[in-house]
Specification:
With about 600 residues, this protein is α+β, with helices and mostly antiparallel strands. The protein folds into five domains: about 5-180, P-loop containing nucleotide triphosphate hydrolases (Rossmann fold, 3-Layer(aba) Sandwich), CATH 3.40.50.300; about 195-280, Beta Barrel (Elongation Factor Tu (Ef-tu), domain 3); about 295-365, 2-Layer Sandwich (Alpha-Beta Plaits); about 375-480, Alpha-Beta Plaits (2-Layer Sandwich); about 485-595, Alpha-Beta Plaits, CATH 3.30.70.2570. The protein has 14 helices and 31 strands. The chain has an eight-stranded antiparallel β-sheet, covered by helices on one side. Residues about 40-55 have low confidence and may be disordered.
Length: about 600
């Protein structure tokens, strides 16, 4: 295919604005998928994506389309996620494209993630084509949304495409707009091979399968290739394109999007962002690649059975190929044994990783409470970054603790300004800016500690605004804070996996709530189990899990009262001895309790 007939584009939007449905209509219209094979959300291949109704992985597909000018074009589409926790997937997909369709719901209008994805597209210098979707809805306001998009992008309001992806209305105009407005790729087919790896997965038979955007040159299956960063040489097992299934081809040329089955068995040898070139005629310099993402949320991940540690390590390495935003390193816990400290982009990202590990790799896992990274200045002047409460130095060794703050933007109808402000200020947030987009909607900007929005902030925001508000956040800075380590003692023994770092003002409130909830989930023993919350050596809250009682007096009837006292004293001594040697098993629900502390 000649380069001038190739178009590489992506679909970006806020969550649930119709990206996957539009992708389905494009596949139908171009005849890429037959009516018999067609199903809703075709590119959302994971069960999790269908269950939750969100795109988690960026998906690539090649389509052929005969345009109105009589030419047949090759269209490479990359469908991207819309959730804020998967922004890294979006950035990698955009780096492989020249244009982007910005899809906006006609009833919801511009939302937080719409702007975030738009700014990413503009940073990559892409041609942005605005599209208003869901014009078939009764609540649709296409004219108002077109006016907003016109003010944002500068395009005339009457030139913005208005479609219904569900009904198929005006979808063909989208393809024509892509062909006319998105520029063809600018690659030199005669130059040394340079292919950018924008995604990958592991196959038991083909090794690491790299998803590539060909920038320069041509490759075929008989050509020795090299990963430039690791200098790993390999002969391709298979080359192919996504049509939409993986379909082998003889060659891949500059401008095309496809995959290379490398045969490499080590997942470290070919990862996202590397450049693949030829061995005989290597490129002088690699492509820029991607800016690595910094995790925002950290949690401990442990196998329920200790012997599954090796399986968990292999599963994490293979999953990291498919999810480059996941980072992990080994750690140990007195309560849970050997495991990993994992970094995630957000709580939803953490939930998806847990689900994928359990479903795709058959593992039974225990997650500890999520926390963020803190900067610590020690008394000797050195600085450290800690990702776990267990790493926090003793208070007398700390000069200053700094916690991460993020800048959040909230789109909300103007009648909910009060409840949004109340929610944010109650979480130590600081007001920054307020901007009315029109008479109905307002954009609120705040800075707030990351730890305050990490767990249940989004759910609270949605419930208080009846689902109308939308949220986006970016890292702002580290700021000094009066933080303390809150320990949990079960039967007098600290459980390191339940420790958390909290603000001093909140330690009594969170300690009392944590102890109350732990009392409900720890199973009763034959002896009384005290559950305590402590800061340093000071106990700030306590609750007892009552002992299971056996009626030792059941067979003791009649006679003197001293007979009963002897039996009760004997039982008391036995319980005291049992408490000294007894072990309390802490169930998984106890660790999940920390995720639900603020739901009341």
């Amino acid at each position: 295919m000649r380069q001038k007939l190739i178009r590489n584009f992506s679909i970006i939007a806020h969550i649930d604005h119709g990206k996957s449905t539009l992708a389905d209509r494009l596949l139908e219209l171009t005849g890429t998928v037959s009516a018999r094979e067609m199903q809703a959300q075709l590119l959302d291949s994971m069960d999790l994506e269908r269950e939750k109704g969100v795109t988690i992985k960026a998906s690539a597909v090649r389509m052929r389309y005969m345009a109105q000018d009589g030419q047949t074009y090759e269209l490479n589409l990359i469908d991207t996620p819309g959730h804020v926790d998967f922004g890294y997937e979006v950035s990698r997909a955009l780096a492989a494209c020249e244009g982007a369709l910005l899809v906006v719901d006609a009833s919801q209008g511009i939302e937080a993630q719409t702007l975030a994805n738009l700014y990413q597209a503009l940073e990559h210098d892409l041609e942005v084509i605005p599209v208003i979707n869901k014009i078939d809805l009764i609540s649709a306001q296409p004219d108002a949304v077109a006016a907003d998009l016109s003010a944002l992008l500068g395009d005339p309001a009457d030139s913005i495409l208005r479609i219904s992806a569900k009904e198929g209305t005006n979808v063909e105009q989208v393809l024509e707009a892509v062909i006319q407005q998105v520029p063809p790729p600018h690659g030199d087919i005669q130059a040394p091979v340079r292919a950018l790896v924008f995604d990958s997965h592991y196959d038991s038979y083909k090794g690491v399968v790299a998803y590539v955007r060909m920038v320069d040159g041509v490759i075929d299956t008989k050509q020795m290739l090299r990963v430039m960063s690791t200098e790993s040489d390999f002969l391709p097992v298979e080359l192919g394109m996504f049509i939409p299934d993986m379909t082998p081809v003889e060659r891949l040329a500059a401008g095309e999007v496809g995959y290379i089955a490398t045969g490499l068995k080590s997942v470290r040898e070919c990862h996202v962002g590397v450049t693949i070139t030829g061995v005989e005629r290597p490129a002088p310099a690699p492509l820029p690649g991607y800016q690595p993402m910094k995790p925002m949320v950290f949690a401990g991940l442990y196998p329920s059975e200790g012997e599954d540690y090796g399986l968990l390590r292999d599963a994490l390495e293979k999953l990291q190929l498919n999810d480059a935003a996941l980072v992990f390193e080994p750690e140990t816990s007195q309560a849970l044994g050997f495991g990993f400290r994992c970094g995630f982009l957000g709580l939803f990202h953490m939930e998806i990783v847990q689900e994928r590990l359990e479903r795709e790799y058959g593992l039974d896992l225990v997650f500890t409470s999520p926390n963020v990274a803190y900067q610590i200045t020690r008394t000797d002047g050195s600085e450290v970054i800690i990702n776990s409460p267990a790493e926090l130095p003793e208070p007398n060794e700390i000069t200053e603790i700094r916690e991460p703050w993020v800048k959040i933007t909230v789109f909300t109808p103007s009648e909910y300004i009060g409840v949004v402000m109340d929610l944010v200020i109650g979480r130590r947030g600081e007001f920054q800016d307020q901007e009315y987009l029109d008479t109905r909607r307002v954009l609120l900007t705040y800075t707030i500690p990351l730890t305050e929005i990490m767990v249940d902030f989004y759910n609270n925001l949605k419930s208080r605004t009846r689902g109308y508000a939308s949220l986006d956040y970016v890292f702002d800075s580290y700021r000094p804070a009066d933080m303390v380590k809150l320990d949990v003692l079960v039967n007098g023994i600290p459980v390191d996996a339940l420790s958390m770092i909290v603000h001093r003002e909140q330690m009594y409130h969170k300690g009392q709530k944590l102890v109350s909830k732990m009392k409900e989930v720890i199973p009763r023993q034959l002896f009384t189990v005290p559950v305590q919350a402590a800061v340093g050596k000071k106990i700030i809250s306590r609750a007892n899990v009552k002992a299971l009682r056996k009626d030792v007096l059941a067979k003791c009837y009649g006679g003197d009262i001293t007979r009963k006292r002897k039996l009760l004293e004997k039982q008391k001594k036995g319980k005291k001895r049992m408490k000294m040697v007894g072990q309390v098993q802490i169930p998984q629900e106890a660790f999940m309790t920390l995720l639900r502390l603020d739901e009341d």
